[in-house]
């Protein structure tokens, strides 16, 4: 089966002059990359990098697959309740591998698989509206939270459980719930044990944003008919390609390019698929890159703030929105194109009464020409860009792509000398919210935020 490929030629100074790098620059990074590779391998051996074990958990995937096959025709709707790493992977896989209008297809067209909803917000309008469209008697909720305590996930769960109770009664609501959480701890684990709710384990050594190939991403995918074993197979294939020989390791080369250009001022990494189905892969990647790499760190006794800013764009849509900025704006970006060789449809542009240059061409040719044109235009304006090409969009190639990007995140974290797997910055907002929501133990935070808001009231900085 075909492999995805990384072409980084347009990052080389040969094509983008002083804004790129040369072979010597690249090779000078190899020792650093080798050491990053070794550290990652050592951490893996110590069991610290659970995401690298996931592609090999084939038995777990089979269990999920069998379970989904038995259950899915019982439900019209599958609803994921989770946020961040407990939601974005589900969306990315579904958008990539199923029909773009999946929820509008008939049950027969969906081969009796359920519709999928992932309301990853606590906006009251969103959750209230969700209740307008779900048939609760035929809905299954997958409550996903590694910690089992995340406020957004629990709040939405409590609301939906309440609604469910009213519709199906106290003896039956449990049959409409699947819990994915830590093996031992947290409120959701306790609830699953107490109520006898079907549950799956998110391994303790797998961080939220690295959990797409764990039950977190696989259950909804399997319910929606996606061949999850093939996703893992693709990831394993990428793992095999990402070996010690840095020059042949796509994740390491992607890391090298990004790292080198970051320190040349290209602090923004735009991921731009030329393929509608990959648009949410860039959304998933945005979280992976931002939450993993945006860190305050201490290097040689100096506090350093690092982190490339990931931006998502979509070809061709954003040619009419963002590309002007990418071509003529500041020289602070590197573009990562996601390109596909074979679309799953071929659409001919028909003849019109007047002769037209578009006639008899296909949309496939048009989107490809626009992709090539944008790539060339960027390169000619000395804007470094690289392209990850997928032979097609399939479980096998998506598995490769997700895994390659996860591995690159782990490598580049070693180069930046940061901990990729924590998110202390998110904590501050969380504890202040707890304070405002009156959670016991967070009285100090409540006072702190109230004082701040009071002071703010006295100022005149609003019009
Ligand atoms: O990547 C992460 O760790 C976060 O985005 C989490 O996934 C997110 O905060 C949700 O956490 P939890 O799964 O514990 O509810």
Secondary structure topology:
Blueprint: E1 5-7, H1 13-16, H2 23-28, H3 30-45, H4 58-71, E2 77-81, H5 88-97, E3 115-117, H6 124-133, E4 139-144, H7 151-168, E5 177-181, H8 187-195, E6 198-201, H9 215-223, H10 228-241, H11 250-262, E7 268-273, H12 279-293, E8 295-299, E9 302-306, E10 309-312, H13 323-328, E11 333-342, H14 363-380, E12 385-392, H15 395-416, H16 424-436, H17 443-458
Parallel strand pairs: 2-3, 2-4, 4-5, 5-6, 7-10, 7-11, 11-12
Antiparallel strand pairs: 1-12, 8-9
Helix pairs in contact: 3-15, 4-9, 5-9, 5-12, 10-15, 11-15, 12-15, 16-17
Bound molecules: 5-phosphoarabinonic acid.
Helix content: 40-55%
Biggest sheet, strands in spatial order? 1-12-11-7-10
Average the pLDDT over all residues and give the rounded result.
Answer: 96
Q: Helix count?
A: 17
The backbone outline, from C-alpha atoms, is: globular
Look up the CATH topology of the largest domain: Rossmann fold
CATH architecture grouping of the largest domain:
3-Layer(aba) Sandwich
| The level-1 CATH class of the largest domain | Alpha Beta
Structure classification: alpha/beta
Which sequence of SSEs, written as H and E, runs from N to C? EHHHHEHEHEHEHEHHHEHEEEHEHEHHH
Number of domains: 3
CATH superfamily of the largest domain: Glucose-6-phosphate isomerase like protein, domain 1
Query: What is the distance, rounded to the nearest whole angstrom, between the alpha carbons of the first and last residues?
Result: 60 Å
pLDDT < 50 runs, ≥5 residues: none
Number of strand elements: 12
In angstroms, what is the radius of gyration?
Answer: 24 Å
